[in-house]
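Any chance you could type out a protein's amino acid sequence plus the matching backbone structure tokens because I've never seen that pairing?

——
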Amino acid sequence: MSVETIDTLVVGGGQAGVAMSEHLTKCRVPHLILERGRIAERWRSQRWDSLVANGPAWHDRFPG
């Protein structure tokens, strides 16, 4: 059996964890996200209906 070694671990798959994963991917850093539930679950199911971004998209630094 082969063992894969990963030096970078992101704990939590919320907004910050997903954003960090995006930056690591752009820098070609192999990494793994650990999340106890579905990735971005709180963002999917527990966000405010009234949340709006008041500015250009590049300024918000949202992943993707």
Observations:
- The mean pLDDT is 80.
- Residues 8-56 form one domain.
- The longest strand covers residues 8-11.
